[in-house]
Specification:
The structure holds three protein chains of three kinds.
Chain A (H helix, E strand, L loop, with lengths): L6 H4 L26 H14 L6 E5 L14 E4 L5 H11 L4 E7 H7 L1 H10 L4 E6 L2 E2 L5 E2 L18 H4 L5 H6 L4 E8 L3 H18 L5 E7 L3 H4 L3 H15 L3 E4 L8
Parallel strand pairs in A: 1-2, 1-3, 3-4, 4-8, 7-8
Antiparallel strand pairs in A: 5-6, 7-9
Chain B lengths: L1 E9 L4 H14 L3 E6 L9 E9 L11 E6 L2 H7 L3 E10 L13 E5 L1 H7 L6 H12 L5 H11 L8 H25 L1
Parallel strand pairs in B: 1-4, 4-5, 5-6
Antiparallel strand pairs in B: 1-3, 2-3
Helix pairs in contact in B: 1-5, 3-4, 4-6, 5-6
Chain C lengths: L3 E6 H11 L4 E4 L6 H10 L1 H4 L3 E4 L3 H13 L4 E5 L1 H16 L4 E7 L15 H5 L10 E3 L4 H18 L2 E7 H5 L1 E6 L25 E2 L6 H21 L3 E4 L6 E4 L2 H16 L4 E6 L1 E3 L3 H8 L4 E6 L5 H9 L4 E6 L8 H13 L2
The chains are: A alpha/beta, B alpha/beta, C alpha/beta.
C-alpha cells in the first residue's frame, strides 16, 4: 500500500506559494466572478503591507461597484459622495501631510460626475494617489453607458452601441491629466494577465513611493473588464477587452518623473 | 446721544471710507457704532451709500430709513435722501454738479463746495474730508483729533503719508463751514 | 480673559474668529456677499502662524467635500458661502450629517430663488432648519444678530459640532456680513492636538480600523442609525435652545424675529412703546433647536404674535407650531433683498395683530 502524504505534512512554511495578505479582511468580496476589482484590491493590499503603510494609509472609496471597498482592506477609510473623492482626499492630505492618502474610483465616478474634482486636484498637484478603474461601463447600477464607453460599445443606455454623434465621445481622462503640470506620475495598466498584474503592481509601488516625494499627483489607470455589465463570460470579456478596449486605451506610462532630476 | 447718519454719493467718491473713518473715530470715543454699506456689483461710478450710527447706547437696528443727518455728494443721492432726513435734522451737501438744490424748510441745510476747494488745494481726493470737517463743525459728535486717529486706523500703513493732507482738509472744511455760518448770521 | 476690541465687518469677524478658535482648515469658494471671509484668511496667512489650512476650491461642491474629508480626520474645519453656493453644498452637508461629522458652515444669506439678488435675505430658513439635503437630519443652526455674534458663534459652533458630532450652520445674512460693528475678539486658542477616537488618521496596531461612511445597505441597521440620530436631535432640543428676550415682561404683544430682522424689531419695540403699545421681542438664537417652549409660555400671556422675517414666511411655521392656536400669529416680511424698516413693522403690528 502506497504511503499517503497527510495534508498536515504539506502545510509547512517552506511549501507556501500563495497566501492571503494581512491587509485584506475576512469580508467576502462583493464583486462578480471574473471582475478585475478583486485583483486590483489584492495588489493594493499587498503593497500597503509590503511598504509598511497600514498605520499611515487613509483610503477614499467612491460610489460605484467599489463603494464597499472599505470593508475589504484593513485600513482607515472614508466613503466619499459620488465623484468627490479627490476633493475629500485633498483635505485629508493637506491636514495630515505625512499620511499615505489615495482614492480608488471607477470611470463614472472619476470621469463623469467627478471630472472637475479630478482635474482640479491633479492640476493643483495634490500629493495623493488616484487609482482609476476603467471598465467602460457603470457596473453597480446595471451596465449603463459611461463616459469611457468606447464608440460602438453596447450598454443598457446605448443598446445599439455608442453613437458618438448622438451620445458624444468617450473621455480619456488619463491622457488629459497627464498634460497637467500638477501630475507627477501618470500611467495606464491592466490586471487581465499575470504579466499585467505584475506590471500594475510595479506601477502602483512607484506611485505609492512617489507620494512621499511631495511632487504632485500620481494617477494610475487600470483598464478592467466587467463581465456582467458587458453580458459576457469572464473569458469572453477578457478577450473582448484585449481586442476592443486596449486599442482605444493603450497601456503604458504617460508621464514619468525624470529619475535624475526627480522632476 | 445717538446720531443716525446717511452718507451717499458716487462709488469712488470715498463715501464708504468717510463712514469708516467716522466709525473708527466713534470707537475711539468709546461709542457704540455701526457701519452698514450698500453693496453691489458697482465699484466705481455707481451710487454708494452707507448708514453710520454713533451712539452712547446699544444700537438696535443698523438699517434705518430716517436719519438725523444726511451727507450728500451727488444729485441722485440728494433726490433720494432729502426726504429721509428727520424734521429738525441736518443736510450737508457738496454743490458740485447739483442743479436741483434741496428745498425742505424743516431741516438745516448746509452747502459746502468741497470738490471745488479740494481741486483748488490740488488735493482732489480729500474732498470727502472737507465735507466731514464741515459737518463736524455743525455737529461735533466726534472730535477732529479722533477722526484723524480714525484715519490712521482705517488707512493701510502704506497710505499713512496721506494723513497730514487729509487732516488739513478736515480743518479746511471746518473753516469753510464757519464762513457759511458767519455769512448766514450776517444775512439775518 | 482679555478680549481685543476691533471694528470689523461680520464677514471679517468670522475669519478672524476662526483663526483664533484654532480652526484647522477652511475650504471656500467666492460668492457675494461673503467673499471677504476667504480674502481675509488669504491675507492673514494663518497657515504660516497657526498652521490652519486655507484653500480656495474649484467649486462649492469641492469645498464642502473637502470639509467632509477634513472633518473625518477629526479636524476643526469649516466652509462659508451664500445661498446659491449653499444649495450646491447640500449634497456634502447631508453626507456630513449622515457620517456624523463635526464641522462649521456659514451661510451669509442673499435673496433667491435662483441667482436672485446679492442683497440680504432670510429666505434660507427652511433649507437650514428643515434639512436642505435629502434624508432625515438636522443641522444645529445659530442665528447671529451682530458682528459680535458672528465672531462668538464660530467658537460656539465648533464646540457644539464636536460635542454632538453634528454639522453646525451659522445662518447669517448679507447685512450682518457686510456691516461693521465693534467686536471683542477672544484670545487665540491653540489648535487641538486631540484626535477623536472615530477619526481616520491611519490605523495604528492598537485599534481596529475607522470607517467614515453614511452608507448602510441593511435597512434594519440603517433604521437603528436613524433612531440614533433622532435621539441625538432630541438631546440637542433639550439642552441647546438659546434665545434672547427684549422687553417681554409686561408685553401685550410679541414680535418674533432672528438675525437682522431682530435688530430692526428692537427698534420697532422702542417706537411702539413710545406710542404706548406694550410690545416685546423674542429673538431665537438657535433656529434648530427652536425656542418653541418659551414661545408657548409667552403665548399664554400676550394677545397676538407677529413673526418678522426677510422671507415669504418660513420661521412663522415654527412659531405657529409652538403657539398651537393659543393666540393669533401673523407674518410680516420683505423679500428680494429688501429689509423691513422699524416703522413698517410697527404699522404691521398695528394692522395685522392689534387691529386684526
Amino acid at each position: 500500500m502506497a504511503e499517503v502524504t497527510g495534508i498536515k505534512e504539506i502545510i509547512k512554511p517552506e511549501n507556501l506559494v500563495y497566501k492571503r495578505t494581512g491587509i485584506m479582511t475576512d469580508t467576502v468580496l462583493s464583486y462578480c466572478p471574473g471582475c478585475g476589482h478583486g485583483t486590483a484590491h489584492r495588489i493594493l493590499a499587498e503593497l500597503i503591507e509590503e511598504e509598511g503603510l497600514q498605520s499611515k494609509a487613509i483610503g477614499v472609496s467612491p460610489v460605484g461597484c467599489s463603494v464597499l471597498l472599505y470593508n475589504f482592506l484593513d485600513i482607515d477609510w472614508q466613503e466619499a459622495a459620488h465623484g468627490r473623492a479627490p476633493a475629500v482626499a485633498t483635505a485629508i492630505k493637506r491636514l495630515l501631510p505625512d499620511r499615505f492618502v489615495f482614492t480608488y474610483q471607477g470611470d463614472g465616478d472619476l470621469a463623469a460626475i467627478g471630472t472637475a474634482e479630478t482635474i482640479h486636484a491633479c492640476n493643483r498637484g495634490e500629493n495623493f494617489l488616484i487609482i482609476f478603474i476603467n471598465n467602460g461601463i457603470y457596473g453597480m447600477t446595471g451596465g449603463q453607458m459611461a463616459p469611457t464607453t468606447i464608440p460602438g460599445m453596447k450598454s443598457s443606455t446605448s443598446p445599439f452601441g455608442r453613437d458618438v454623434r448622438m451620445m458624444g465621445n468617450p473621455l480619456k481622462m488619463t491622457d488629459i491629466v497627464a498634460t497637467l503640470p500638477g501630475t507627477y506620475y501618470v500611467t495606464r495598466q491592466s490586471v487581465h494577465t499575470p504579466a499585467n498584474v505584475k506590471k500594475t503592481k510595479r506601477a502602483l509601488r512607484k506611485a505609492i513611493q512617489y507620494q512621499f516625494h511631495n511632487k504632485g499627483t500620481c494617477f494610475v489607470e487600470i483598464v478592467s473588464n466587467c463581465p456582467s455589465g458587458w453580458k459576457m463570460t469572464p473569458v469572453e470579456s477578457i478577450r473582448w477587452m484585449e481586442e476592443n478596449m486596449l486599442p482605444f486605451y493603450p497601456l503604458g506610462d504617460m508621464k514619468v518623473p525624470d529619475e535624475k532630476t526627480g522632476k | 446721544m445717538t446720531e443716525e447718519i446717511i452718507i451717499a454719493g458716487f462709488g469712488g467718491q470715498g463715501v464708504l471710507s468717510m463712514g469708516k473713518i467716522m466709525a473708527y473715530a466713534g470707537v475711539l470715543q468709546d461709542m457704540e457704532v455701526s457701519w452698514m454699506p450698500s453693496y453691489g456689483p458697482e465699484m466705481r461710478g455707481g451710487t454708494a451709500n452707507v448708514i453710520v450710527i454713533l451712539s452712547t447706547e446699544r444700537i438696535s437696528s443698523p438699517i434705518i430709513r430716517r436719519f438725523d443727518t444726511g451727507i450728500i455728494l451727488n444729485q441722485q443721492s440728494l433726490d433720494k435722501f432729502e426726504g429721509s432726513i428727520k424734521p429738525g435734522g441736518v443736510l450737508v451737501y457738496d454743490g458740485n454738479g447739483i442743479s436741483r438744490h434741496p428745498v425742505r424748510n424743516d431741516i438745516s441745510i448746509y452747502r459746502i463746495d468741497a470738490t471745488e476747494e479740494a481741486a483748488r488745494l490740488n488735493s482732489p481726493k480729500t474732498f470727502n474730508m472737507i465735507i466731514l470737517g464741515g459737518f463736524l463743525e455743525i455737529k461735533p459728535v466726534l472730535s477732529v483729533e479722533n477722526v484723524v486717529n480714525g484715519l490712521k486706523k482705517s488707512l493701510p500703513e502704506r497710505h499713512h503719508r496721506l494723513i497730514p493732507e487729509n487732516a488739513k482738509a478736515l480743518q479746511r472744511g471746518g473753516e469753510m463751514m464757519r464762513e457759511v455760518l458767519r455769512i448766514r448770521e450776517q444775512d439775518k | 480673559m482679555e478680549r481685543e476690541l476691533r471694528l470689523m465687518k461680520g464677514n471679517e469677524a468670522v475669519a478672524e474668529a476662526a483663526i483664533r478658535a484654532g480652526a484647522d482648515g477652511y475650504f471656500g469658494y467666492p460668492i457675494t456677499p461673503q467673499s471677504e471671509i476667504l480674502e481675509y484668511l488669504m491675507e492673514a496667512k494663518p497657515y504660516e502662524t497657526t498652521g490652519m489650512v486655507v484653500l480656495q476650491a474649484e467649486s462649492e461642491l469641492a469645498a464642502i467635500n473637502m470639509v467632509y474629508g477634513g472633518a473625518a480626520c477629526g479636524k476643526k474645519v469649516m466652509t462659508t458661502s451664500s445661498s446659491p453656493g449653499i444649495s450646491l453644498k447640500q449634497e456634502g452637508i447631508t453626507y456630513i450629517a449622515g457620517a456624523e461629522l463635526p464641522c462649521l458652515i456659514v451661510n451669509v444669506v442673499r435673496g433667491g430663488p435662483g441667482l436672485g439678488t446679492i442683497q440680504p435675505a432670510q429666505s434660507d430658513y427652511f433649507q437650514a432648519v428643515k434639512g436642505g439635503g435629502h434624508g432625515d437630519y438636522h443641522l444645529i443652526v445659530l442665528a447671529p444678530a451682530s458682528v459680535q455674534e458672528m465672531a462668538d458663534f464660530v467658537e460656539l459652533g465648533f464646540d457644539l459640532a464636536f460635542r454632538y458630532r453634528n454639522p453646525v450652520m451659522i445662518l447669517s445674512d448679507g447685512a450682518i456680513g457686510q456691516m461693521m460693528e465693534k467686536v471683542y475678539l477672544n484670545p487665540h486658542r491653540e489648535r487641538s492636538k486631540d484626535v477623536p477616537e472615530w477619526a481616520t488618521t491611519g490605523k495604528p496596531p492598537t485599534r481596529s480600523r475607522n470607517i467614515i461612511t453614511s452608507l448602510d445597505l441593511d435597512p434594519e441597521a440603517q433604521e437603528r442609525f436613524n433612531l440614533k440620530l433622532v435621539a441625538k436631535y432630541n438631546e440637542i432640543r433639550e439642552k441647546e435652545v438659546r434665545y434672547e428676550e427684549f422687553q417681554c415682561d409686561d408685553a401685550d404683544y410679541l414680535l418674533v424675529a432672528y438675525g437682522t430682522s431682530a435688530r430692526v424689531c428692537q427698534k420697532s419695540v422702542q417706537l411702539a412703546r413710545m406710542e404706548g403699545i406694550r410690545v416685546g421681542l423674542l429673538r431665537p438664537i438657535t433656529l434648530f433647536p427652536f425656542p418653541s417652549e418659551r414661545i408657548s409660555v409667552l403665548a399664554d400671556r400676550v394677545k397676538g404674535i407677529l413673526s418678522v422675517e426677510m422671507s415669504a414666511g418660513q420661521m412663522v411655521e415654527d412659531v405657529l407650531l409652538a403657539v398651537n392656536g393659543k393666540v393669533t400669529v401673523k407674518h410680516y416680511g420683505r423679500m428680494g433683498g429688501m429689509i423691513p424698516t422699524p416703522e413698517e413693522v410697527v404699522e404691521n403690528l398695528r394692522s395685522k395683530i392689534i387691529g386684526g
